[in-house]
Design brief:
Elements: H1 2-43
Length: 70
């Protein structure tokens, strides 16, 4: 019984020593995730208008750019 209590005390002390490090690591990972999400949102292009088949840019292809028309 005495040996079990010794192991229990050592395990509890070990957990108390590692607890601040574990909490700090969890906090750092949360901050890194927030920074990564913010950078990802900032890098996303914003759509200002529709750029489909009927847009002005699709009709500006000239004969010099299209090999089938030259």
């Amino acid at each position: 019984m005495n040996l079990f209590l010794n192991y229990l005390v050592v395990t509890a002390l070990f957990a108390l020593v590692l607890l601040p490090a574990g909490l700090g690591l969890a906090r750092e990972r949360r901050i890194d995730r927030q920074l990564r999400d913010a950078a990802r949102r900032e890098a996303e292009p914003t759509e200002t208008g529709s750029r489909g088949v009927f847009s002005q840019e699709a009709r500006t292809v000239g004969s010099a750019q299209c090999p089938l028309l030259s």
